[in-house]
Amino acid sequence: MESWGNDPSCTSGGSDRFGSTLHWGPSFEENRYDMTHAEYKNGESLGDAMHTYGLIWTADRLMTYIDNEENVVLDVDMSGESFWSRGGFEGENPWRNEPNAAPFNQEFYLIFNVAAGGVNGYFVDDKCGKPWSNESSTSVNEFYDDVGNWFETWNYPMTNDSAMKIDSVKVWSFDESTFLQ
């Protein structure tokens, strides 16, 4: 799950939407995330209220949702085709002799972070005071060097309005026969 806290006119995302994405491939250069990506658009900023972001992960399916299980954002059925086949890769298959769900048939970590900047096109060049270019090799430095312009918009430390707020994280295992179809 990835969400942007910015005004929607400044990004290809915005505070009113989030994306669910699986990153996978035999190498970084062959990441086929675009084949397992979906976006959710809310009627208002997602930062205006607490939300439930869910992930249901079984041997045959990965599904994300917002607020309740009926509000599905991304649904990846892994029962009929391997990720190797889905990606159309060539060469040596690192997941040979593994189930279709490979590489998602092993344990992963949950990571929560706040990211700023990027050169992937989410933040449009020359809009909303963006101090770096998507072509820049020093974008992180350019972002930080402009701290005098953006830091005050975070209202920190006066408020935590720009903070990532997590009420709880729950993880549990369930009987696969109860999974939504």
General description of the model:
- The chain has helices at 83-87, 139-145, 147-150, and strands spanning 2-3, 17-21, 37-41, 53-57, 61-66, 72-77.
- The chain is mostly beta strands and 181 residues long.
- The protein has one domain.
- The strands form 2 sheets. The chain has a 3-stranded antiparallel sheet with strand order 1-2-3, with no helix packed on it.
- A hairpin with a 5-residue loop joins strand 5 (61-66) and strand 6 (72-77).
- The longest helix is centred in the C-terminal third of the chain and has 7 residues, at 139-145.
- It is globular and about 55 Å long.
- The mean pLDDT is 86.
Q: How does the helix and strand content classify structurally?
A: mainly beta
Helix content: under 10%
N-C termini distance? 22 Å
- State which percent range the strand residues make up: 15-25%
| Spatial shape | globular
The biggest beta sheet, please?
Answer: 3 strands, antiparallel
Can you count the helices?
A: 3
Listing every helix as H and every strand as E from the N terminus to the C terminus, the arrangement reads EEEEEEHHH
Mean pLDDT: 86
Strand count: 6
